[in-house]
Specification:
The structure is a homodimer.
Chain A lengths: L1 H23 L6 H8 L6 H12 L8 H22 L3 E2 L2 E2 L1 H26 L4 H23 L8 H26 L4 H28 L2 H4 L5 H5 L4 H9 L2 H12 L5 H13 L2 H20 L6 H15 L3
Antiparallel strand pairs in A: 1-2
Helix pairs in contact in A: 1-2, 1-4, 2-5, 3-4, 3-7, 3-15, 4-5, 4-6, 4-7, 5-6, 6-7, 7-8, 8-14, 8-15, 11-14, 14-15
Family (chains A, B): Belongs to the FPP/GGPP synthase family.
Keywords (chains A, B): Magnesium, Metal-binding, Transferase
Pfam families (chains A, B): polyprenyl_synt
Chain lengths: ~325, ~325
């Protein structure tokens, strides 16, 4: 266990130092926006996974940070663009970039971060890594678009919901693990295990997020409670709840939701019912299933302190309150 | 000369076919936005330059289109994001994507095109190409930001103006030529000549655009005449005009322009004065100097029908009216 504590104490500050240094190389005009999104904290889940998977699969070199951080830059770029897309006023409890800096600087700073991510990866002289990164951006943007296309779609099939969260969240986390495996020169089987690990973590992560949206007070999560309902996002707690309603009640609610006819009180009442009905909890249970899949994928890795660390952070991921 | 006509007749439809085919592979939800920007016409200058430079420098393979078209996709992505940034209502004479499809779909479709561009280039297994593409996106976005930072800045130094147009326009055209040279496996000298060629074409292209903004009727250009003045963009015709004014007159006009105090009539009067003073024409003369630099760079290429074609299209580029 002291190995594990050592790894975290070493890796997270090293990631932050690298992010800071790379941000310093950008044009001074974009730095305020970039710093705002990068230094807002965040768990550094994606670069950490790249590093841990690379080490767990035998990478012994000292050039993992540009690759790992390119995934954080890509993630930050999508956050900047999403802020505009969602019209979100808050991000991690602070004002969104577009509120502070305007849509123009936010869009362009996002583009600069996308370019930076690609440039960092290009330095590895391994087109497979560039392919993974491009695919991750493609899938993330497509997942976002799919989500918007299904706003207020109360008939959203479960598999479409999973396809949306795979695109908008899981794919990039999968790519983070995959990049680590490719950097380590892992076998095809282990590359696939790394992808399965990342995919399962990503889905579990988003399911917990979707549950927290119903239960976590804004003071803890930095986001308004019930934000998804207000924005018309159909996520698993709502899907599960709707399935329990008698036909006529479901029809009426569905109609009101679709036409954005619910008052703030209606929404708060609905949110209360969904939580009381255990549907946020059931969403966490689905997340637990995916974390079990993640553990199964991880079991294919050879034993190492890093694999143990990944295993150890999966449980707290489920229990998190923000 | 018939060689040359043959090349154009062959290459442009082939580019359009490839663009169409690649767009078809995208998620159906983004296709309307992508088609809107891609099929709006455009000269296909960037992919054409990649192809012509590659051929001129000895590339004999049949795999030039993904690379060439990745530059058109990157260009289209920046157009989509710029439409939002500029708040432009018109693009090539048609409604802008964000007016038709909303900011959300426009931002995300731009991201999808950026990802597609990177993925196409990754297939070449040549990290140098990925590096060129990433750098082009970085420079383009940075140039845009710099332009916005200097809106209404009537004291804009000439070298900052050139740095802005290098970033927002010339760099991507330079990258198009550079990619062609790298694909052809050209020597370092010829790679540099290709970059010099693209840089000079790009600057000339933007100078002509900046001149046309003052002179071309909306019915011809698809953009409102004097649009730059209205938007507060300080370009060469205005810079040259301001330098001719007596101190006090310059100070008053500068102050009004800076504070956006000019009425539509004031702006039209100012535009008339700038054109009557020959400053749009002088801007075209600067463009002619850059086209001469382009010819000088091209003179380093070995003789070929493609090099001849590039040379032949430079003069009409200066004379264009839209």
């Amino acid at each position: 266990m002291s190995d594990i504590a050592d790894i975290l104490t070493r890796e997270v500050p090293a990631i932050n130092r690298y992010l800071e240094g790379a941000a310093n190389t950008l044009n001074p005009l974009v730095q305020p926006v970039v710093r705002h999104v990068l230094l807002a904290g965040g768990k550094r889940l994606r670069p950490l996974l790249t590093i841990l998977v690379a080490r767990a699969l035998g990478y012994a070199g000292d050039n993992v940070h540009p690759l790992a951080c390119s995934l954080e830059f890509l993630h930050s770029a999508t956050l900047l663009h999403d802020d505009i897309v969602d019209g979100a006023k808050l991000r991690r409890g602070r004002a969104s970039a577009h509120v502070l800096f305007g849509a123009t600087h936010t869009i362009l700073a996002g583009d600069v971060l996308l370019a930076l991510a690609n440039r960092l990866v290009a330095e590895y002289d391994d087109p497979e890594l560039t392919r993974i990164l491009s695919e991750a951006l493609l899938q993330t943007a497509t997942g976002e678009i799919q989500e918007i296309a299904h706003l207020r779609d109360v008939d959203l099939p479960l598999d479409t919901y999973f396809s949306i969260i795979t695109g908008k969240t899981a794919y990039l986390i999968q790519a983070s693990c995959h990049c680590g495996a490719v950097l380590a020169g892992a076998s095809e089987t282990l590359c696939q295990a790394a992808q399965d690990l990342g995919h399962a973590i990503g889905i579990a992560f988003q399911l917990v997020d979707d549950a927290l949206d119903y239960t976590s007070p804004a003071t803890v999560s930095g986001k308004p409670t019930g934000g998804d309902l207000k924005e018309g996002k159909v996520t698993l707690p709502l899907i599960l709840y709707l399935a329990t309603l008698p036909f006529e009640e479901r029809r009426r609610l569905a109609e009101d939701f679709r036409q954005d006819q619910l008052s703030a009180e209606d929404i708060e009442y609905l949110r209360g019912n969904i939580v009381a009905g255990g549907h946020a909890e059931k969403t966490r249970e689905r997340a637990a299933e995916y974390l079990a899949k993640a553990q199964a994928a991880l079991a294919l890795f050879p034993p190492s302190p890093e694999a143990e660390l990944i295993s150890d952070v999966l449980a707290p991921m489920l229990a998190r309150e923000k």
